[in-house]
């Protein structure tokens, strides 16, 4: 967590980006270290992104069980 609704995210492509937690998610979810997130990189700045969704532990287990995740 970087403060002011920003978070450092390590993406699957190996790039570490600064993510912005949108208001819709900020009011509903708590994002913790180690969570699986869906992010959308900005088209004009590749080192920044918007956080769209956070998967909870049972959802991550289901994705791994059905081979939707590499690891």
What do you see in this structure?
- The protein has 71 residues and is α+β, with helices and mostly antiparallel strands.
- It has a single domain, classed as Nucleic acid-binding proteins (OB fold (Dihydrolipoamide Acetyltransferase, E2P)), CATH 2.40.50.140.
- It contains 2 helices and 4 strands.
- A hairpin with a 6-residue loop joins strand 3 and strand 4 (48-55).
- The relative contact order is 0.21.
Structure annotation, total helices:
2
> How much helix, percentage-wise, in residues?
10-25%
Number of strand elements: 4
Report mean pLDDT, rounded to a whole number: 81
How many separate structural domains?
1
CATH superfamily: Nucleic acid-binding proteins
For the sheet with most strands, the description reads: 4 strands, mixed
GO molecular function, one term: RNA binding
Family: Belongs to the eIF-1A family.
Keywords: Initiation factor, Protein biosynthesis
Function: Seems to be required for maximal rate of protein biosynthesis. Enhances ribosome dissociation into subunits and stabilizes the binding of the initiator Met-tRNA(I) to 40 S ribosomal subunits.
């Amino acid at each position: 967590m970087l403060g002011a609704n920003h978070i450092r995210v390590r993406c699957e492509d190996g790039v570490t980006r600064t993510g912005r937690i949108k208001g819709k998610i900020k009011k509903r979810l708590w994002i913790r270290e180690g969570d699986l997130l869906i992010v959308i990189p900005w088209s004009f700045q590749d080192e920044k992104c918007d956080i769209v969704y956070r998967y909870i532990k049972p959802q991550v287990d289901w994705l791994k069980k059905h081979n939707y995740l590499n690891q």
